[in-house]
Amino acid sequence: MMQEGAFREANPDSHDRKLTLLACGKINLCLDVVGRRPDGYHDLRSIFQSISLADELTLRVMPGSDGIYLRCDHPGVPEGPANLAWRAARLLLDRFDGQAGVQIDIRKRIPIAAGLGGGSADAAAALLGLRKLLELPISDGELARIGKELGADVPFCLRGGIALAEGIGDVLEDIPCSPSYAVLVVTPRLHVSTAEVFRAFDPAKVDRRPSVERMRGHLERSCLAGVAGEMVNVLETVTFALHPQVAAWAKRMQELTPGAVMSGSGPSIIGLFADLDHARRAMAELEQEDVFLWCGLPAPRGVREVK
Ligand code: ATP
To answer: For FRET with 53, which of 113, 117, 196, 279 sits at 20 to 30 Å CA-CA?
Structure first.
């Protein structure tokens, strides 16, 4: 008897239903913390943007089986119930009338614990993929509510694109625009704890806050210089103090583009460029360094089917 959580090879002769999806990472173009809730969570105002840096998830439904069998090619990612995609699958299987198991194969491309929402993206892909494979009558709104149980960023990852986010990041309003810039991501190889950064956040130490309203206007008018001017993340006050290396990378990115800021609670630093050529040239300047580097375009959706 297989342990739930251990991976099981699919039977090539079976008629398993299968779906492969791309789960896009997200960046914060700006981030403000506007309050603290009694439950310890913080209220944010932020602009979320999907990027085409994506994990690949293959889902296989195994009728008549039970359990969730997850495998990931990155050793730092949990393969059992601690994985957000595993938990997403559990929540949907619990709503399925018949008996079915699920295999989840994750090819990790988004750096982990990087401020790029990789775990949330995987959870969103698992929710959307399994809703389809199991033919579950769950509305988008209900799926977003299930997603929120898994993590504050999951509702955004389910829709993706570009949105103004409030609440804990779950109250979303799409911004009607088609961003034409390219994104460069630099992720220093160090661990930043999101919980620790939020715990240590002190509004008195913030001397500049972003205006999400102004940023929204610049995005709608496709004014990259205006967007660059509003790229402020108040959590930099904490992460830069805890990890001076991250501050040094932000400075380095600012030498390459005026549109540079930390994403989420870090350590990733993002830079916006007029097009891919400019982003690639900037990336080439950094290639000798021991950091994760990626450049590419914004993604219009959070999750996309590939086959
Ligand atoms: P957050 O700011 O919400 O922590 P993040 O993008 O900085 O998001 P993730 O890549 O989502 O960080 O990973 C945070 C932690 O979540 C990891 O250390 C890992 O142990 C755990 N985790 C659970 N599921 C996944 C997953 N599918 N992919 C990556 N990490 C996962």
So the answer is: 196
